[in-house]
Design goal:
single chain, 266 residues, alpha/beta, 6-stranded parallel sheet, two-stranded parallel ribbon
């Protein structure tokens, strides 16, 4: 319900109130709640007045075979990529201005996108004749990871509403899986994680000039890109491996009080 208010297109008080009550009911009656961002833990605990110990964190993760740790980037023209939703939460107005600035600096940008505002962005690029911006039809996860690997920087943007400060966008994890340095217009938990682990640069103010400056800096400093890329890989290996993180979920299902284990091993 908070996300509906955050995107600014739905604010029927009765429906929001009803949905929020149902949301709280679900939290209170759950034996375990699994979230994919630590930012949700405090929010849910306070909203439902429940013990934070019942809320477990399992992030979007990488399967080991997706890492391609031995694969080296093939030399190519400097390219930037944006993948994922082009909806109400992603600040498409920011992306349109970013496309304009990228065209001014003749930086290649590929967009693998879908969603509510995609047509609007496509139309803008056509009208402005931004020939350095290319749309790629969304495809399989494996193909998206391969595309990430062919680029030098991954872009992330979220609206500056407080509700999105708890979110860790899945595209951040996907960028890191392929060792792709991140330039982000985000705040909250996503900002803290990127800066803490030095996997990219963040403009909390969503300032286009600052974002462009980061991209140009990375374009001109291959050594920094290599360092950030290594940090991405190390972080995935230490915190975002599916084969490790899935044990938390299995354990939670097996150990509910008074329940027969859902999964058994011989």
């Amino acid at each position: 319900p908070e996300s509906l208010k955050g995107v600014g297109v739905f604010n029927n008080r009765l429906i929001i109130w009803t949905a929020a009550r149902f949301e709280t009911f679900l939290y209170k009656t759950a034996d375990t709640i699994v979230v994919n961002s630590p930012g949700f833990i405090e929010y849910i605990s306070k909203k439902a007045k429940i013990d934070a110990e019942t809320i477990k964190y399992m992030p979007n993760s990488a399967a080991t075979h997706e890492l391609n740790l031995e694969e080296e980037k093939v030399p190519h023209e400097f390219k930037v990529i944006y993948t994922g939703n082009l909806g109400l939460a992603q600040d498409v107005d920011f992306l349109t201005e970013l496309c304009r600035k990228m065209h001014e600096h003749r930086i290649k940008l590929n967009i693998v996108g879908y969603g509510y505002r995609k047509k609007e962005l496509v139309q803008f690029i056509k009208e402005q004749k931004l020939d350095n911006i290319t749309f790629v039809t969304p495809t399989t996860r494996a193909e998206c990871l391969r595309l990430n690997k062919e680029h030098d920087v991954g872009i992330v943007s979220l609206n500056d509403k407080e509700v999105f400060d708890t979110v860790l966008p899945g595209k951040i994890v996907d960028y890191m899986i392929t060792g792709l340095p991140i330039v982000a217009a985000v705040s909250g938990y996503a900002k803290k994680m990127i800066e803490k682990h030095e996997t990219g640069y963040v403009s909390e103010k969503r300032d286009i000039e600052e974002i462009i400056a980061y991209i140009l800096f990375l374009k001109n400093h291959a050594d920094v890109r290599k360092k950030l890329s290594l940090n991405c890989t190390n972080l995935i290996k230490s915190q975002f491996l599916w084969e490790e993180n899935i044990h938390m979920l299995i354990s939670s299902m097996e150990t509910q009080p008074g329940e027969v284990p859902l999964v058994s091993y011989t």
